[in-house]
């Protein structure tokens, strides 16, 4: 008996009931010269069934690989979008803070000018009393 495709004996599932049959012929060193016609037909049937299983398995692997690749691309695109969004938010915050800083600087300059005017006016008023 064997345990699947890597078994040293030919195994295949019967189409009618899905049970596994071991032919007793070694897959690795099958000698068809001394086989009877029935045994040869059984071995060919087993090889055909195994090839079909291998083709199905390869097809499943290809489909899984395709799905994994799609998911990988989706996650990469999502990651890129998130990075761009964060970059735009940071840029917007920097622009807002820059505008706020300019407004505060303008208010400070206006305050200094108001103090300068107030000081000069008090000096002018004092000069009138002299």
What can you tell me about this protein's structure?
It is a single chain. The chain has 130 residues and is mostly helical. The chain has a domain at 9-79. The chain has one helix and two strands. Strands 1-2 form a two-stranded antiparallel ribbon. A hairpin with a 6-residue loop joins strand 1 (9-13) and strand 2 (20-26). It is rod-shaped and about 140 Å long. The termini are far apart. The relative contact order is 0.06.
What value does the Rg take, in angstroms? 43 Å
Trace the largest sheet across and list its strands.
1-2
Helix content estimate: over 70%
* Helix and strand run: EEH
Shape: rod-shaped
Give me the number of helical elements.
1
Unreliable stretches (pLDDT < 50, length at least 5) are 1-16
Mean pLDDT across every amino acid position: 76
- Largest sheet report: 2 strands, antiparallel
Briefly note the structural class of the backbone.
mainly alpha
Strand content: 5-15%
Q: How many β-strand stretches?
A: 2
End-to-end separation in angstroms reads: 125 Å
Tell me the layout of helices and strands.
Layout: E1 9-13, E2 20-26, H1 37-128
Antiparallel strand pairs: 1-2
Concise structural overview:
The chain has one helix at residues 37-128, and strands at residues 9-13, 20-26. With 130 residues, the protein is mainly alpha-helical.
Key descriptive features of the protein:
130 residues, 2 strands, 71% helix, rod-shaped, disordered N terminus
């Amino acid at each position: 008996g064997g345990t699947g495709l890597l078994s040293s004996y030919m195994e295949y599932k019967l189409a009618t009931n899905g049970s596994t049959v071991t032919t007793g012929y070694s897959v690795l060193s099958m000698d068809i010269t001394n086989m009877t016609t029935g045994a040869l037909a059984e071995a060919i049937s087993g090889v055909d069934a195994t090839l079909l299983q291998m083709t199905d398995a390869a097809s499943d692997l290809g489909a899984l690989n395709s799905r994994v690749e799609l998911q990988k691309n989706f996650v990469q695109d999502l990651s890129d979008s998130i990075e761009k969004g964060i970059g735009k938010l940071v840029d917007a915050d920097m622009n807002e803070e820059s505008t706020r800083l300019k407004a505060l600087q303008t208010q400070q300059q206006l305050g200094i000018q108001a103090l300068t005017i107030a000081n000069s006016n008090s000096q002018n008023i004092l000069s009138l009393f002299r």
